[in-house]
Every structure is written in structure tokens, then in C-alpha cells.
Amino acid sequence: NAGVTQTPKFRVLKTGQSMTLLCAQDMNHEYMYWYRQDPGMGLRLIHYSVGEGTTAKGEVPDGYNVSRLKKQNFLLGLESAAPSQTSVYFCASSPPGQGFLSSYEQYFGPGTRLTVT
Amino acid sequence: ELKVEQNPLFLSMQEGKNYTIYCNYSTTSDRLYWYRQDPGKSLESLFVLLSNGAVKQEGRLMASLDTKARLSTLHITAAVHDLSATYFCAVANQAGTALIFGKGTTLSVSS
Asked: What pLDDT does residue A68 have?
């Protein structure tokens, strides 16, 4: 099993450009998440999904959109990139359990380092 | 609003000595997670603590949870160089819609 994979690993964008980050998991997990990590800030939840066809906003959703057309994939889109979106983006997934976020740990992908100039 | 505070944010440790990292959170939660992150790498799950009084141990690391005090501790016994990393605690909010992360504690072990 590959676990959680992310594409691409690195990307440089110019202000105003758009791009899509792809997250894929082969563990048949129901729940998937997108986080951003900035120095000294920990991780902050951007959007999440509790199943195919469903998405919801997290702590910092502005400027991002997501889609979950297939259970194994969770896409994060930036329609018009801004320098404030320079960050490391992590995708994670977890199996369902006793409730949302369950008792099981989240499994993280390797991250995508995005620079917006 | 749930807030998670870790302290210290940086810890310089000597090999062989014991240390403790603290994770305080501001509102009721029954799920607390500890993660490790090596530089430039992803997050690795260390512990999942689900109830008051929960204690889990793995090697030189031991985590505990006191939900009444809203406090978790990560205790390091006889530090070794391999433990150098950044450690995050994360708490599930009441609505179950997010994990709120602390800012992380960066550990550096020297001989």
C-alpha cells in the first residue's frame, strides 16, 4: 500500500495563477482532510470530506476550493494564487469510527511545498 | 473557540536526562493526538488518547491525558539523539469538525 500520496511535491506559481493539488489514498478511508503548515503555526485545517461527494470548510477555507468525486481522491484548488498561500500543504485521511474524526489517528501524506511569487 | 498551547516551544536536551512537554487546551475535548515531524518530512502519529487518565507508552516516550485539567503531557525518558524532532499535540473540537494543532515543540538532543 502506498498510503497517502500527494502530487506535486513542489510547485512555484505566480500571483493570480491557478493550480490543483491532488491527494490519493489507497486505504479505503472515508474521511480526508487538507491542512496547511506555516512556520510557527502548527497545522491548520482548510477543508475536509466525510465521504465521496461531500466537502466542508475548516478553519482557513478562504481562497481554496475542494472536490471529492471519488472516494480515494481529494483535490485542493487555488483559483487565483496569492503570496499568502505560500505554504506546505498536507493531505490526511482516516477511517470512520465512533464519529467524525473517530478514535483513529489521521494518516498524513508527504506534503506539497507551494511558493507563490 | 478551542485553543491549544504547547510549552516549551523549543527544548534543548542532554542525552540521558528526562524532560516533559506540556499541551494545554481551552475547551472540553475527549480526543487528543500526539504527532512527530522530522525536518522536511510528514507527520507521524505517536499516540491517540481518548479518555481521562489515559496513558500510553512507546519506547522512551510516554503520553498522558487529564481531561479535567485539559492537559496532556509527553514525557521523555533518558533522551537520545534519535528523538530530535518537532512534536505536535492536536485536539479534536467539540463539534468534531477539526483537529486543532498546537504550534509544536522542537526538541534537540545533544551529547
From this structure: 97
